[in-house]
Amino acid sequence: MDELTFAARRAIASLPKTTEGSDLDTRFRNLVQSPLRAGLLRFLSARPEEGFDVEALMSTFGRLRLDVENCLNELVAFGVARRMPSSPGAHPRFGAARPIDEDAATLLDTFLERRAAISTEDQAPSVQRFREMIGRDEKMLIVFEWIRTAAKSDIAVLILGPTGSGKEVVARMIHELSRRGTERFQAVNCAALPDTLFESEIFGFEKGAFTGAHDRKPGRLELADHGTLFLDEIGDLSLVAQAKLLRVLEDRRFERLGGQKSLHVDFRLISATNRPLEQFVRDARFREDLYYRVNAFSIRLPSLRERPVDIPVLANRFLARYCASNGLPLDAKTLSSEAMARLHTYPWPGNIRELESTVSRAALSAPGRVIRDNDIEFLHAGVAMPVTDGPPRLPTLRDAERAHIVRVLDAVSWNKKEAARVLEISRGTLYRKIVEYNLEPETRTSRNKTPE
Fold first, then answer.
1. Chain CA centroid to CA 26, Å
2. Which terminal residue of the chain has fewer beta carbons within 10 Å of its beta carbon, N or C?
3. Are domains 307-384 and 392-452 of this chain identical in fold?
4. pLDDT tens digits, 145-178
5. Are 258 and 301 in contact (CB under 8 A)?
6. What is the fold, at CATH topology level, of the domain defined by 307-384?
7. Through-space distance between the first and last CA atoms of the chain, rounded to whole angstroms
8. pTM score
9. Bridge partners of 84?
10. Would you state the torsion angle of the CA atoms of residues 208, 210, 211, 217, taken in this order, to the nearest 10 degrees?
11. In the chain, what are the domain boundaries?
12. CB atoms closer than 10 angstroms to residue 424
């Protein structure tokens, strides 16, 4: 979501006007309207003695080369950045510059002084979650294309991925980019919704429908009218709840609990799960007709360990967020190269959610500005620490099974039908193992594969 944050809007609005309607004032306001230009300006100004090439800035901001280069050229043209001298054949480097014009320098100083300001709205989880949806890894670039494709229509979307990989972030992005973006987004956690509460939560209830129903309450379906209904962990719904949901998806009509009037709703359905729904269908744990209803278009999110290129980008983003939320300058904390290397080698069983909590914990415990290697503490420390003394650890049965499945899949070029035949298991069991072990071919670069 590439839009100006509320804090940036407020900072721009508070900039002093050198002259009423001043051309300089207007040009500077237009310059910092772009969140990327504003971010680059803050970043370079916080390190006035250093120079950075485009590759380094691409890595820091998680943006494409053309975007970074265009923004840098505009900053240089205004005089708040400079192209540093470099040897022939070397990549150009950019650094901060102080405008010669005193009015321009005043505008710059005022803007930089307010860079840590953050509004209550900007701290809202719904806004913060969008900032996690960044990445330079090829797998994530494909996901971004899927999001844009899904947002073009009202087709039902099923988001697949391990816990903590950002499934709700993707759902919100699809909603915001779609024609329903100005309407409500209703999120329901199906895993925390027992059968006894399913009807009252989803359909709502009339006054007197049951003991304690003192007033009419609209359900999530009614609240999502003209908007989007997001069902998180849909694989945890009971068969009874699945049947009731299927009826609504077919007719787009429902009755409140205890009511007689049939209500029509127009909503877009997005679902998410970390469960192997195909296997659940075969095991009669998930209705086949509902499966095809919710899985008209699927998006698979890679785990964090599948996209190691994005770990530094995400870590720096979470660190800047920690500083901003605690009223600190955005450069008040920084990760040392050793600390970043440790983050890069950790397997991240908790994915992006675990990375954010780890970075925040390290920023809190680090005594100085630089976060060192020993400031980082993992919740699953044993997973990240290799055994250096004593005999090597023998593989568990789970390790051996995973390694053997990978070998067979690689040997048959990930033809799952052939792999299931070699392994002497059903294709459903193979699909379940692939999801359970978070397996994915390293060379897969597109969503569509040759039919098997």
1. 34
2. C
3. no
4. 888 889 999 999 999 988 888 899 899 989 988 9
5. no
6. Helicase, Ruva Protein; domain 3 (1.10.8)
7. 36
8. 0.57
9. 93
10. -60
11. 6-113, 138-300, 307-384, 392-452
12. 7
